[in-house]
Amino acid sequence: FLKSCFIFKIKVTMSLDEDARWLEWVTKQFESIAGDDKEIDLDEFKTALKVKESFFAERFFALFDSDGSSSISLDELLKALDLLIHGNETDKLNFLFQVYDVDGSGSIDPDELRTVLKSCLRESAISLPEEKLDDLTLALFESADKDNSGSITFEELKAELENFPEVMENLTISAANWLKPPDLDQKKRQTPRYLTRAYWHNNSRKLLFLCVYACLSLLLFIGAMLQHSHGGAWYMVAKGCGQCLNFNCTFVMVLMLRRCLTWLRATWVVRILPLDQNILLHQIVGYAILCYTLVHTTAHVFNFVQLSEKSEYSLWEFLLTTRPGIGWVKGTASVTGVVLQVVICLMVLCSSTFVRRSGHFEVFYWSHLSYVWVWSLLMVHCANFWKWFVVPGLVFLLEKIVGIAVSRMGSLYIVEVNLLPSKVTHLVIKRPQFFHFKPGDYIYINIPVIAKYEWHPFTISSAPEQSDSLWLHIRSMGQWTNRLYEYFRQPESQTVSPKRLTTSLRNRRQVMKDLDVVFVCQCYIDGPYGTPTRQIFASEHAVLIGAGIGITPFASILQSIIYRRRKQNCPNCNYSWCENIKDSEMKLRKVDFIWINRDQKSFEWFVSLLTKLEMDQADEEPEGRFLEMHMYMTSALSKNDMKAIGLQMALDLLAKKEKRDSITGLRTRTQPGRPEWGKVFQKVSEEKKGKVHVFYCGAPALAKVIKAQCEHFGFNFYKENF
């Protein structure tokens, strides 16, 4: 009881502070917009409070304009807001009732309720048929109209709201939830996550590996410096950095031996080395190479300045010519060093996040192929580099030869193409006879008609048990992916049919719906390559989080689960249960699948798969449901937003009545807004189904948030990278 009182006191304090900041913000906005007349009209009101939906803006304005002058003074505004902030629960409920009571009759009729819900749908970017809007209106109206009088009174609305305690809580905690401006959210001061005990515990393998890497680099640097101590300080620094470059320019290649890493993931080594962090480590080593080259070059320049004062050659001759005879191949060390410095700087620049994520993946792809020139120049530049390079280089070359041989061994064909909402291209490829992969693996694909020499990585979205085909879901975000989408969309422009384009290339023919177009589409694949999700079936409790098209690796996993779990039905009753097919790898006891999308149409990508998953779920299971799905739509107003209360109540009521969600058609109710990760993981922790492993694929910014929460709860976190 005392703990509950303490929590309530904290909430009240936070609410008062929030309200005070909000009131200050509203006053400041009012004064900046009202002008000399000290009053604001409807358009100025929308601008001041950043309320975009005209219906709610007009209703708020009408209620604030107590004298009916078609303008609001600061006193009128503050008086109304003071009622919302300091008023009791009844006062606030009465304000909500007046917003819904458009004609001011003292009751809400079905047409008024329909108008409110239609405005809520528009503001949440939800598109539903008019018939569905009518169903939502009737569901909420019939539930609230207790006496069947044909209208909802204040008492009836209050009684209905009491059936939704989360709504009542949001209504009473803070008035700022009514018209909350977007810039009120302030970040709380917290201990940096890198200094927390949980971070060091959950990242122990990576941190230990980095410590060993740093110590090895330091030893190489000091050893090379001592070995060349006769040449002066700058010469020693240059040689120390040079030795570190010998190691790093080889190690950066080892981290990208994909076939070797995929094989190692199936061994005990994965429990010691951070194989799932190979991309991050590759980036760290890449930046280390840039730093070493800059220091190496700078040290040599200062050394050449000193040498030029004592010899017949000038500084520029030392740097840009072969005359001084520095280097083991005809004095080319300086010239090759300058070229290497330029090439490495360009490689690092073109591999930056803003280049790769801004639709210019090809710039990163082609510039990174210059690694061949870097290694070739290093052979000429440094007499000892070949000793470091020979073994890893041979393994790398062998991997490339195997990759080319496998990819060109047989001609593959795309047998079906579906163009999905939000410019997603679904490719169905005829599966090679001896192609074996694990759920969540990815491949490189080359489609000559799109780009003859370009290979791009994409996650396989079909299950390994699906023997006849491979699925790829490709979001149009760059030049190559956009060309791919447009290539299959072009014939669509020849018809006025609004149907989704479905392309079939069976028997090397492409037959398009409503069109008569025939041509061949050939492709090549290289892979498969392993990812962190290979550990999914070795987990006890797995949480799969996909953001947008980041669902693709989990689509493969979820389909594989269908194949590995057989639903059984009792012939004498409706009871059903699930049995795991005997599998030594299968240790899963519980799976939570979370899919976050911005808009409604994105759910159409895998709605048929998710529907099948729901149908294959047993009605009752001894230890609770094996698979739970959670859908979130970020464009929809959250339940914390008072403009969404009516809509969310109606959606809940209709979902219970129809046994399906109005937005996706699934049994799982789509939640508005973003997940509250603290509450989500708290619930997962309380289930106690075993060690929790969280797998994420999506935007890097969200990954940081989820990883921080995982560290707090002691969950293992894995992020898809390639």
From TrEMBL:
It is found in: Membrane. Keywords: Calcium, FAD, Flavoprotein, Membrane, Metal-binding, NADP, Oxidoreductase, Transmembrane, Transmembrane helix. Residues 407-535 form the FAD-binding FR-type domain. One of its GO terms (cellular component) is NADPH oxidase complex. GO terms for biological process: defense response; superoxide anion generation. The keyword Repeat does not apply. It comes from the Eukaryota. Residues 52-87, 88-123, 132-167 form the EF-hand domain. The chain crosses the membrane at residues 207-226, 232-258, 279-305, 325-351, 363-380. The keyword Phosphoprotein does not apply. Signal peptide: none annotated. InterPro entries: EF-hand-dom_pair (IPR011992), EF_Hand_1_Ca_BS (IPR018247), EF_hand_dom (IPR002048), FAD-bd_8 (IPR013112), FAD-bd_FR_type (IPR017927), Fe3_Rdtase_TM_dom (IPR013130), Fe_red_NAD-bd_6 (IPR013121), FNR_nucleotide-bd (IPR039261). It is a multi-pass membrane protein. Gene3D superfamilies: EF-hand, Nucleotide-binding domain of ferredoxin-NADP reductase (FNR) module, Translation factors. One of its GO terms (molecular function) is calcium ion binding. This is NADPH oxidase, EF-hand calcium binding domain 5.
